[in-house]
């Protein structure tokens, strides 16, 4: 098995799935980073050009993935996944929130491969997953507020954006050139076993093409990224069902809620003892782009009726006026936790019916409803 994975990842001389456009885009990312760092490296512009060209050629001619393996998340499969990460490959794995697309956080080529696989904008940073708060402190600078939140909620569905530490190893490309780093300690046992086996930070955005619905099962990952990732660890359906809540703890600023998610605002505010400030317009964390988490069909929010060519995404016992093409309910009983768990899977299932649009019932904005509404608003932004 290990040999099979490495053969798939090291078919040199093949362009594989990386397009010329993708290679050019990767080169632009690297060149901008190199331009900013050339004084520290003490190199001439010619030397930087050599590094950029060498980087592009390595990305294009190495690690061409021709087949994706989907394996139950056994100890042996986790070991194979760790070996794939160590050789520069990409691995999809479950967390308690959604499935992540993992790569070695220290390796610029692995990070670039994630951007290429997801077709992701280069200015949207990635979350680095680590095994413990102690390991997170090696990557970022934790003030008293960040330390309090990490102690209270890790392992769990919380991401903290903090200043990047001098001892940090997360590659600048994963940080989108920012002086900050986004860190999380996941709770899912498969994710934790993988981090333990790999022994280093793993950057892992949601395992789907950028701007599409996030995956809550291994099959969702394969539908979006087959042939773009070496291995998928199948750990069943993810229990939370929406991404992590992202909080910024930066010097001289209030603690900000950058992205609502699987940990409710009021729980964080209770631990902090103060209200959270809102995010600024600057992209500081994943999920802050206006359009994100989008199915192919248009999304119509706060709907009370539905047309015959539309799909209906309900919440609670109320029924819409009209007869939809297809219908699913996030939670017939009005349970927001159940609704969050079902959100992305239901959007994918309805979108597969190819409706003209997806009409979504009104959903309360309190608790996890804030995260659900945030995802739906981004899905509707076209």
Describe the structure.
The protein has 382 residues and is of the alpha/beta class. It folds into 3 domains: 18-62; 64-278, DHBP synthase; 298-380, Rossmann fold, CATH 3.40.50.11030. It is 37% helix and 15% strand. The chain contains 12 helices and 15 strands. The chain has helices at 2-9, 20-41, 45-61, 75-86, 108-118, 133-139, 144-153, 189-198, 218-225, 265-272, 336-351, 369-380; strands spanning 69-72, 91-94, 99-104, 127-129, 158-163, 180-184, 202-203, 231-234, 245-248, 256-259, 277-278, 298-300, 311-314, 326-329, 357-360. It has an 11-stranded mixed beta sheet, with helices on both faces. A 4-stranded parallel beta sheet has the order 12-15-13-14. The chain is globular, with a radius of gyration of 21 Å. The protein starts with a helix and ends with a helix.
- Beginning-to-end CA distance, first to last residue: 43 Å
Please state the average pLDDT score.
83
Low-pLDDT regions? 1-31, 33-64
The CATH architecture classification of the largest domain is: Alpha-Beta Complex
Total count of helical runs of at least 4 residues: 12
Please give the radius of gyration in angstroms. 21 Å
Order of strands across the main sheet:
1-8-2-3-7-4-6-5-9-10-11
Bin the helical content.
25-40%
- Under CATH at level 1, the class of the largest domain stands as Alpha Beta
Provide the β-strand percentage band.
15-25%
The domain tally reads 3
**What is the β-strand count?**
15
If you consult CATH, what is the topology of the largest domain? Answer: DHBP synthase
- What do we call the CATH homologous superfamily of the largest domain? DHBP synthase
How is the biggest beta sheet arranged? 11 strands, mixed
Secondary-structure-derived class: alpha/beta
- Order of secondary-structure elements: HHHEHEEHEHHEEHEHEEEHEEEEHEH
Shape: globular
